[in-house]
Amino acid sequence: MSETHTQSVHDGDGAPQQDIEPSSEITRLGSLYSKTSIIFVILCTAGLGMGLAYTFGIPIGGKRLLEGQYYWFFIGIFSAAAFIAMPGRKSQRTVPFYDIIAACLAFGISMWFSTHAWDIVQAGWTNIPAGVIFWLLMLEIARRAGGTPFLLVVLILGLYPIVADYFPGLLMGIPYDFDRMIEAHVFRTEGMMGITTKIVAEIVFGFLVFAGVLIATGAGEFFIDLANAGFGKYRGGPAKVAIVASGFFGSLSGSIFSNIAGTGSITIPTMKKVGYPAHYAAAIEACASTGGVVMPPVMGAIAFVMAITIGVDYATIMVAAILPSLLFYFGLILQVDAYAARKGLVGMAPDKLPNAREVLKRGWPFLSVMVFLVWGLLYMRWEYYAPWYACLMMIALSFLQRDTMMTPHRLFGTLRQIGVLVTQTAAIILPIAFVVSALTITGVTGSMTSGLIALGGDNVYLIIALGILACFIMGMAGLAIVAYIFLAVTLAPAIIEIGGLNTVAVHFFIIYYAMLSVITPPVGAAAFLAATIAGAKPMQTSFTAMRLGIVIYFVPLFFLFQPALVLQGDLTPLIYVLPSIIIGITLLSGGLEGYLLGFGMVKPLLRLPLAAAGFAFSFPGLMTTAIGGVLSALLVAWVWWDNKDTDSKTVA
Questions:
Q1: Percent above pLDDT 70 for the chain
Q2: Which of 60, 97, 495, 381 is nearest to 88 (CA)?
Q3: Reported pTM
Q4: How far are the Cα atoms of 513, 539, 545 from residue 542, in angstroms, in the given order?
Q5: Which of 80, 199, 148, 198 is nearest to 479 (CA)?
Q6: How far apart are CA 336 and CA 357, in angstroms?
Q7: At what angle do helices 604-618 and 622-651 cross, to 10 degrees?
Q8: Distance (Å, rounded) from C-alpha 478 to C-alpha 353?
Q9: DSSP states of 43-75 as a string?
Q10: Is the Cα dihedral 553, 558, 559, 565 positive or negative?
């Protein structure tokens, strides 16, 4: 998990400069103008230039880049950047000689392969010894980016073709010897020349550049100030600020861990100051940051993978994510509000809050650029071009204010920030090519789908239950994106075939449950990171995050059976389904936290029944909604009567 912490520095003319300094435990670039940092920025600037040339068809040396040429340029540049920026061990502060050799090898082999791009496509050119070296280098990058668990997932699944014929039943596939496997993994469209490289080098690249420009010009601080101005004065204000700020920030960065590092380092201490326990503050940040990854407009790389997998444009995915993400944040805000009401926590002092008018006056360029990006994606359908145009607009608007002006110092910091984001993302996404290749060439995905259908016995509910379990297990073992890619080609077709369910809803269902592994014990990586910042116990934080994020555990089931919630098909059911879900989430939150909005405290013996009734009322089914509605009415009346008696005694 390669993420960054936000630090503020100043440029030469005294204006505040938003510079992202990589975490000392993850990166080793050092100060902004260290030798390592300068080399890293030069490399990444070259990669940025190649990306611009390929995207907009700008000739280099009188010729446009071929797809294969550009892919190998991208892979070589950012693989070398990964060996420079990402330490092999946490304690490393400098770049050892063997990492310099690894960087040179990754860069040199990729550049050599780029000269054979045409032959690779047309004549099937390969070089197995060089391919093996490159494969080993990518495995090491996988270890540095995602840790040993991620390495094991990529390695074991990547080697599956060698032993595919030894597995029984639905796990049996077409076997490949080692040389043919390397050929497929490295040189063919099933592997490095396929979907994974396309995602990071073409689709996500522009959005990462856009996020880097926004963050480097101060968007992170603006969104935190905006959330403070809007929510800071209310009870439990800092917690609501953390939720809103993480939603905004996550929609830019598309990364759970950089979201926690960027906003959590500010919001968690503030929450603790007003009375939230350390584990609760950390859990709030972990949940809010997790939801940010599926919060439009940018979202995470997994959303782009989904768009390609099901063959729709990104705008469709972005629109489909709106209601589920809003419902999740609605439930989270209700829970922290209920906790604050039950514990008597107040908001922040007015004199410590930023003035909303001043915040908007300073940050209107960021809002304008966000609106422009959404307009470009939804109305103009610019797709890959939209974030590049938005970057140009942001750079132009930065000159209107001294605090954001793109000075040479700030430009260098921006290039470094972009480089860090792209390098980290590439280091996670590129090795997944070996997993995709292994699943594709062996044909195991088809047998897995048919096996799941046979195992489920045509019972869609049983297959969904198996799918939820698979999402959690695979999400814990590696990364959500690995789990999604595997389940999208095995589980999703089975659910769609048996249940006749909406394709977009099914794929979102898989994404949500795969993503939830980062807050779910025993391997809640996001909760653990937030706990480190808060000085809390990791497992306690993870269990608290699981309770706070309860809505996100249920929402996927809701839109799976009612696709109108992801704005698919007939939207008429939203007229009655959406209000019932909102009321149900309110009841569910009140039961979990012991305080029902508008009614008051909930007795311990009523909390679990109230939460269960809220879930039943919100579930999109006539019978469950009716039963849940009756139970909810009775329980709410009980809560009202209890608080009426309490108020009467207080007055007396």
A1: 93
A2: 97
A3: 0.82
A4: 16, 5, 5
A5: 148
A6: 26
A7: 150
A8: 41
A9: HHHHHHHHHHHHHTT--BTTBPPPHHHHHHHHH
A10: negative
